């Protein structure tokens, strides 16, 4: 982390978990143990149907509500989809884009990710752009090539001014939901590479200010070490973000120099 130049963001990705009532339960429990976390921003990304319940439940807490996905068209005949304007109008601030589960199960590509990033930015949302290699790609030694391609494709056509609203999440696919975490060095190396890629695209000042999260089985036991890496500015957390005590333990782990 480097709090002097950029925000630290601890974000939960609830995936397809929790009903609206469970959302309220989670918030009630979190409220009793959440520290006044001045050292980081706290974000909870919930299923779109639960966004109104989450906005109500987290209203008086320092917790921002985000979405897990968005469609890139503004409106029209796209049954079941949710637009960026709809999210913005509800009061959503952040939206996860290009999560590996969406790439794997719902056919998202670097091209659709780029369209979604533009749609989110146009609506005034902060995209959290997910990138990450599979185990096969890591073993083939093409991790950095792939990450470079994903970052460059996702941000193609995004102005420097708009980039300030973006967050990048490095999530090695082999570490998501598997209990297998990248070592701090592995995670740190890729996050440093992402920042270098942004530097080549946008210059040093912007690269220095962009928040880059790590995601992939982050938990209370490994968070401090991961967050101690200079280019890891927070976490995107699945499993451990579903339990208030574990989520808070990770928030507390971000409270380091
Ligand atoms: C995620 O869903 O973005 C994630 C990192 O999940 P987990 O923490 O469960 O690996």
Protein architecture, described:
- This protein is α/β, with parallel strands linked by helices and 257 residues long.
- It is built from 12 helices and 8 strands.
- An 8-stranded parallel β-barrel has the order 1-2-3-4-5-6-7-8, surrounded by 5 helices.
- Helix 2 (51-57) links the parallel strand 2 (41-46) and strand 3 (63-67).
- Helix 1 packs parallel to helix 2 (51-57), helix 5 crosses helix 7 and helix 7 packs across helix 9.
- The longest helix has 19 residues, at 184-202.
- It starts with 8 loop residues before the first strand and ends with a helix.
- The model has no long low-confidence stretch (mean pLDDT 96).
- It binds phosphoenolpyruvate.
- Phosphoenolpyruvate is lined by residues 13, 15, 171, 176-177, 215-218, 236-240.
Q: How many strand elements?
A: 8
> Strand order, biggest sheet?
1-2-3-4-5-6-7-8
Residue share in helix: 40-55%
Please state the structural category: alpha/beta
* Number of H- or I-type helical stretches: 12
Q: What ligands can be seen in this structure? A: phosphoenolpyruvate
Q: What is the CA-atom radius of gyration, in angstroms?
A: 17 Å
Low-confidence stretches: none
Mean pLDDT value: 96
Q: Which descriptor suits the 3D outline? A: globular
Euclidean distance between termini CA atoms: 8 Å
How much strand? 15-25%
Main beta-sheet annotation? 8 strands, parallel, barrel
Order of helices and strands: EHEHEHEHHEHHHEHHEHEH
